[in-house]
Design brief:
This protein is of the alpha/beta class. It has one domain: Aldolase class I (TIM Barrel, Alpha-Beta Barrel). The chain has twelve helices and ten strands. It has helices at 2-20, 34-37, 64-73, 86-89, 93-102, 116-124, 139-151, 163-169, 192-198, 216-220, 231-234, 239-247; strands spanning 45-49, 52-53, 57-58, 77-83, 107-110, 129-133, 155-160, 176-180, 206-210, 226-229. The longest helix has 19 residues, at 2-20. The chain is globular and about 45 Å long.
């Protein structure tokens, strides 16, 4: 499974980064409220930046500054997600830092976090929230990472793919739950997954729907507070127009 390959590579990468870039200074906590930004009335988009993905290969030739500018100026984009995995997604920590310099919108670092060092690193490079993937983290580690992120003023988007993972996450301190419609074994998308799992989530939790959103109808048919969208935006020749059509502006 591709996720297993990514995690194995990530373990080696993190150990190397710990040695090359030790974070020993005090980090200034985030002052941006990611949770509040993505739970407003109406359609809330978390627009993603990445160059490629294991499921689709290379996505676009859009320049990073152009993409940032579009996301930054669009009213329905409430937060920006930045992939920081170089090997599988073509981005890096420095990409996150570049985005942080030119937008006031909250930033989600989308990464395969397996070590507390990566949480410190996320804040160091400008993240206001982090992604935690339930399938690669045990309950105790999820809670520890959520707490550590909070200490740095960051929210945690905890991602699930199955009912079993959701049941585990509901026993943690997770406040924002991401439901990924993609099957990690087959890479196929099932847009009904979010509606099925959302029924099991208490109303005080924030639900983020992930993967497979290509139209406004896809969005209006989903039970979610926010939508994390990357591929369909980045594959579009006109990202601005695609955002407008997705949000029905």
């Amino acid at each position: 499974m591709i996720l297993d390959q990514i995690v194995e590579h990530k373990k080696k990468e993190v150990e190397q980064r710990k040695k090359q870039f030790p974070i020993e200074h005090i980090l200034k906590p985030s002052t941006k409220n990611f949770k509040k930004a993505i739970s407003q009335k109406g359609i809330n988009i978390i627009a993603e930046i990445k160059k490629k993905s294991p499921s689709t290969g290379m996505l676009n030739n859009h320049s990073l500054p152009d993409v940032i500018k579009i996301y930054d100026q669009h009213p329905k984009v409430k937060a920006i997600s930045v992939l920081t995995d170089q090997k599988f997604f073509g981005m890096s920590q420095e990409s996150l830092q570049q985005v942080a310099k030119v937008t006031d919108k909250p930033l989600l670092r989308k990464e395969f976090i397996i070590d507390e060092y990566q949480i410190l690193e996320s804040r160091h490079y400008g993240a206001d929230a982090i992604l935690l993937i339930a399938s690669i983290l045990q309950k105790t580690k999820l809670n520890r990472f959520i707490k550590k992120a909070k200490e740095l003023g960051m929210d945690s988007l905890v991602e699930v793919h199955t009912k079993k993972e959701l049941e585990l996450v509901l026993e943690t301190d997770a406040e924002i739950i991401g439901i990924n419609n993609r099957n990690l074994d087959t890479l196929k998308i099932d847009l009904e997954k979010v509606n099925k799992l959302a029924k099991l989530i208490p109303p005080e939790k924030i639900i983020v729907a992930e993967s497979g959103y290509h139209s406004n109808q896809d969005i209006t048919n989903a039970t979610a507070d926010a939508f994390l969208i990357g591929t369909s935006l980045l594959q579009a020749k006109d990202i601005q127009n695609k955002l407008d059509r997705l949000t029905n502006d």
